[in-house]
Amino acid sequence: MKILLLVNPVSGKARGIKFATAAISALEEKGHTCFAVIGESQADCESSYARALHEFAPEIVLAVGGDGLVHTAIQKLAHTSIALAILPAGTGNDFASTHDFAALDIDIAMRQIKEIDLGLVSIGERTEWFGQVLSTGFDSLVNRRANRFSRVKGRIKYTIATLLELFSFQPISYQMIIDGKARDTKAMLIAVANGPTYGGGMKIVPSADYQDGFLDILVLKPVSKIELLKVFPKVFKGTHITHPAVEIIKAKSIFLAADTLAYADGEFVDQLPIRVEVIPQALKLVDMR
């Protein structure tokens, strides 16, 4: 089988290169043909990846990195016959963890392939796929701040970023159209979930299902800063969803307009307004279960 490795060389303190080297050796011993794309920059990675998909024509893409690299991978894999597998080497690895990718499975070619839903964001004429969660409002601002921490890794950086962002944050006025129905609201944040977790294991919508044909929209209505500090730790266990200020709506599409920004899979998307919709069975994924 032809397997294309898409590698983030700086993932997890350079674990990406180490893991990819070991993976190629193990896979080639099993008789697979491997080709690695290791970008020196994001732009270089994307162009080399697109070229390799066309010229090498793999049956599986093995993403060696974290959620950001998976996000890059799915942009070219949606609505194709090429399946995605993951060798987690990042700091968050939410997509990999949700789908039980914990280490390299050298029998990857023998696994079944399943189809999962993806989220599709429209920003004007531009579109972008995401696999896990799109965040807006307070949590997107936290994400932006956390991404600036070069020496702090893992869950702790999101905790620190939350505390720092909290001082100046005010509730945001949103205009929403959910499955064609208009609604205005003030909220601390609105998250659109295709998968249950983000930010290194925060269970923002524990019940989000990749195969149900719906997005799970979480609205956190205005609360005091002290109350937000009380609610925030509960996100790691998913118990925040019982709080009276939390509302979860299942929908197929949502339009969001507000004076804030959006991140998807931890990657910056754009300023709002945006439109988000679920695309059922958009991605083929190696089934680890």
Count of the domains: 2
Element-by-element helix/strand order: EHEHEHEHEEEHHEEEEHEEEEE
CATH architectural label of the largest domain: Sandwich
What's the alpha carbon Rg, rounded to whole Å? 19 Å
Query: Would you identify the regions where 5 or more consecutive residues have pLDDT less than 50?
Result: none
Share of β-strand residues: 35-45%
Percent of residues in helices comes to: 25-40%
The main sheet comes to:
6 strands, antiparallel
Spatially, the strands of the biggest sheet line up as 6-5-16-13-8-9
**First-last Cα distance:** 21 Å
Mean pLDDT: 90
Quick take:
This protein has helices at residues 15-29, 42-56, 67-77, 94-98, 138-147, 155-166, 225-231; strands spanning 2-7, 33-38, 60-65, 83-88, 113-123, 126-130, 133-137, 172-178, 181-187, 189-193, 215-220, 246-251, 253-257, 261-264, 267-271, 274-286. The protein has 289 residues and is an alpha+beta fold.
Question: Which structural traits does this protein have?
Answer:
289 residues; alpha+beta; six-stranded antiparallel beta sheet; Rossmann fold; Tumour Suppressor Smad4
Write structural notes for this entry.
- By secondary structure, the chain is of the alpha+beta class.
- It folds into 2 domains: about 110 residues, 3-Layer(aba) Sandwich (Rossmann fold); about 150 residues, Tumour Suppressor Smad4 (Sandwich).
- The chain is built from 7 helices and 16 strands.
- Helix 5 packs across helix 6.
- The protein is globular, with a radius of gyration of 19 Å.
- The mean pLDDT is about 90.
